[in-house]
Amino acid sequence: MQILISSPAAWPRPPSCLPADRLGAPPNGARVTVAGLVILRQRPGTAKGVIFITLEDETGVVNVIVWRALYERFRRAVISGRMLRVTGRLQRETGVTHVIAEEIEDVSDLLDRLLSPDTPRGAGPGVSGSAETVREGS
């Protein structure tokens, strides 16, 4: 089941994405698409190659888990993307919600539209930047 939510035309939000504050609506295991600014990337040495990404949209944060095999397939987007669109399975455990990534797309080019002189002031969210941390482990 994929949930599609339309968004305001004034903000160049990737199509068909579920906002962070709506992740409680679909059932556990549902296939969803989320998008947001990358605010954290972690690759702990104890995680056996798993990468944890935190995305932020205008409604909250989304925790994304990227397994090693998927990381190899979408390496460029995972490493360099400032804004990502992730499709995967919703997982809820002990009160924590994650999206287990199946597809990852770098949509950072949408951020450039926010700075375009053609974009009316106030049409987009206040993007003040993001703190990115990459911790390489063995």
Automatic annotation (TrEMBL):
One of its GO terms (molecular function) is nucleic acid binding. Residues 32-106 form the OB domain. Residues 117-138 are annotated as: Disordered. It holds the Pfam family tRNA_anti-codon. GO terms for biological process: DNA replication. Belongs to the DNA polymerase type-C family. DnaE2 subfamily. This is Error-prone DNA polymerase.
